[in-house]
Amino acid sequence: MKIYGLTFFSIIHDLINEPFHLHIAEGSNKLCKYWVFRDGSIELADSSGYKRTELKKIEKALKENITFVME
Questions:
Q1: Is 34 within 8 Å of 22 (Cβ atoms)?
Q2: Which of 31, 34, 46, 52 is deepest in the core (most CB within 10 A)?
């Protein structure tokens, strides 16, 4: 799934050992992971290469699309 030019994806084998989460990538140098909870809240789990302002943009995209993400 792409939102704001960012690629949102999950890796099935990750979900066996970890709670539901999404990876977000922009190019090959930026990657982060957000936990997505049943109540619709999100939490940054890990980030590499993103500035805080960019993470805010990602959080906004996740919150705006949380219903779609959780389906």
A1: yes
A2: 34
CB 57 within 8 A of CB 63: no
State yes or no: pLDDT of 4 exceeds 80.
no
Show the tokens assigned to 22: 């999404």
Dist. CA 18–CA 1, nearest whole Å: 21
CB atoms within 10 A of CB 53: 7
CB-CB contact of 30 with 49 (8 Å): yes
Q: Find, among 11, 66, 13, the residue nearest to 22 by Cα.
A: 11
pTM of the full predicted structure? Answer: 0.86
Query: Which pLDDT score, from 0 to 100, does residue 42 have?
Result: 94
CA angle 42, 46, 52 (to 5 degrees): 80
